[in-house]
Amino acid sequence: MNCRIYTAVCCFLCTGILNHHNGVATAGSTFSQSSRQLSCLFETSETIPSLSDFKYIRQNAWLLLSGTKSKDTKRPHSENPPAANTLTFIVQESSLDILQHVDEDTDKLECKISRYFTDNTQILWPGLQTQLHKLDSWFTGTIKHLDDKFTVTVFLVQSSASKEAENRIPEDVSQGNTETFYLSGVLLVRTGPSVIQSGLNKDVLLSCAFSVDHNTDVAIKWILQQKGGHKKLIFAYNGSARQVEYKDKRAEMFLAEIPKGNASLLLRTVGVRDAGTYSCQILVSSVLWAQNIQLEIVEKPTVTLNAAVLSLVEGDEHKLVCDISHFYPHDAEAQWFQEPMQQGMLPHLVTHVVSSSHRQNSDGTYSFSSYFLLKASLRDDGRRYTCRVEHQSLKHPIKKSLTVKVTESTSATWLLVILFVVLAGCLVVMLYFLYQGMSTNKPKPY
Ligand SMILES: *[C@@H]1O[C@H](CO)[C@@H](O)[C@H](O)[C@H]1NC(C)=O
């Protein structure tokens, strides 16, 4: 295609200019615009007839995704001459644009090629020339982004009728094999992150896209497998009838986007029961592929104390309660600390703390409380106590503090008052007698 060549030339020029400008040679980037070479692991199994068992074989492989029509790329990029014991899979250009879906640096990708077993039946795939007595060889290439941005699976076929099919991929890939195989990509499924975390009552988009090498009807199903193993159909779309056959009440698909290869599912106001593994199933002809996305519901706890300032009288006992509520999942931890009176000292963990058992709320979240009995002493006047809560939804623990004010007990005050009165009374009496004595001892003036 002219436009493709034009783009390639333009990119070459751009990189050329940039290279010149930076004075750094990065020839690889030009190459990657029109083709991609991925280091892969080829996995297959071999039957051991004597044991009627399987043996798994792994071999290094190159997957060359080519965007150009030329077949002169017999050998992969010259920078990487094939090492011994490495297979090379060259995916010839087709109307399936794989490169468009693998838009990331090669060193950020992980690739695996496996055989796709067809149960000894010939898959009738439009456009594929097949020989009656020979089965096509089917493979899947799975390319995963290392930071879990996406996963792409490509179906690759080595047609039994193709010229290159003489170079068949042997069932048992023996050691020291460095052969090159030509395949065509016929179907691709791309999902977004394989693990998604969401809070309660949010809308969540489960991203799934597909691409087929010919114009055809695609059936789409979304199935949820819940924690207990229970499977639930969420959405079913019939491609040939162009209609939705089943729909969960909170699930939506973008029907206008389906012909463009968009099979994403939107879940509205997710709850605890929506957590689980969602599989995006794409059915084309008789090829079915399912790719999984895990949805985790994570909700932050609300932490409250039964007071902000607690005024106690010396000797009183009071329950200090920390309520940890409406969080998900179940595992949350709460600790009470006694803050130091002076700065620069470490808080002291309160050890006699009791936790109530977890209560499950109607929305599926959990709540519990953590408390201890404080016996007020004058030394603790002005002391702060902190409840510290940890949960997987929190980057940093939640801390809530209260200050305790302790006053002297009233009975002690009364005792002091009585003591003071008695002492004062004694003093008065003594002073009186002293005065009396002094006046009687006075000599008579006559
Ligand atoms: C599918 O369509 C929706 C709605 O337009 C959009 O938000 C989403 O990004 C699309 N997903 C893919 C994989 O194209």
Rg over CA atoms, rounded to whole Å, is 39 Å
Task: Give the ordered list of helices and strands.
Answer: HHEEEEEEEEEEEEEEEEEEEEEEEEEEEH
Reported for the largest beta sheet, the result is: 7 strands, mixed, barrel
Mean pLDDT: 82
Overall tally of structural domains: 3
The total count of strands amounts to 27
Distance between the termini: 149 Å
Strand order in space, largest sheet:
1-2-3-7-6-5-4
User: Please, how many helices?
Assistant: 3
CA-based shape = elongated
User: Regions with pLDDT < 50 over 5+ consecutive residues?
Assistant: 1-32, 68-79
CATH class of the largest domain: Mainly Beta
> Structural class, from helix and strand content?
mainly beta
Proportion of residues in extended strands: 35-45%
Provide the CATH topology of the largest domain: Immunoglobulin-like
> Which hetero compounds are present in the coordinates?
2-acetamido-2-deoxy-beta-D-glucopyranose
* Oligomeric description of these chains: single chain
The CATH architecture of the largest domain is Sandwich
**Which bin fits the share of residues in helices?**
10-25%
